[in-house]
Design goal:
Blueprint lengths: L7 E5 L5 E8 L4 E7 L2 E7 L5 E8 L3 E2 L3 H8 L11 E12 L3 E10 L2 E15 L2 E10 L18 E11 L3
Antiparallel strand pairs: 1-4, 1-11, 2-3, 2-11, 3-6, 4-5, 5-7, 7-8, 8-9, 9-10, 10-11
Length: about 170
């Protein structure tokens, strides 16, 4: 069964959406988790059912529950928030397939470096007020110029999880 999504403009409900990251550190012994407190986004569902849109994350809003670590993550060693205050994901194509699976093709920009990114999201909720997408995927932070790795203690890829609630935009 394929679910139809209403065409038109949609806005991210920032109060009902979350974007988080997690990464193994301390030689794989500790998993650092953080969430972005300030996110935004919008999109458009086209008449053919495909969608496009943009999500933004304020780098300075990343909270790992450790102020010293958060300051270091905002520094030039990692996100370089002074020069690159936002992370953006531009969805060039999003198509609902196989019932609740949404195939998304886009571009992720971190630290001014853009890389193609394809992912699968799941349509986990849809009602008269909006729709919810959930996804989890991994990225290689070194592809975005974040190679800092003192004593080799940061290994592997960063996992990104997102629960995104979109509501019809008021025009």
């Amino acid at each position: 069964m394929t679910v139809a999504v209403e065409t038109g403009l949609w806005q991210l409900d920032t109060t009902a959406s979350t974007v988080g990251i997690q990464h193994k550190t301390m030689w794989g012994l500790v998993t650092v988790k953080g969430t972005f407190g300030a996110i935004g986004g919008s999109g458009e569902v086209r008449p053919d059912g495909s969608a496009v849109g943009t999500l933004t994350f304020d780098v300075a809003s990343l909270d790992t529950k450790n102020a010293k670590r958060d300051t270091h993550l905002r520094s030039a060693d990692f996100f370089d928030a002074d020069h690159h205050p936002e992370i953006t994901f531009v969805a060039r194509s999003a198509e609902l397939r196989d019932g609740d699976q949404v195939h998304v093709v886009g571009q992720l920009t971190v630290r001014g470096v853009s890389r193609p990114l394809s992912l699968t999201a799941r349509l986990t909720g849809q009602d008269a007020t909006g729709l919810t997408l959930e996804t989890e995927f991994t990225v290689d932070r070194e592809q975005f110029g974040m190679g800092w790795n003192q004593l080799g203690m940061i290994r592997g890829r960063t996992t990104v999880t997102a629960g995104l609630r979109f509501v019809r935009a008021i025009v």
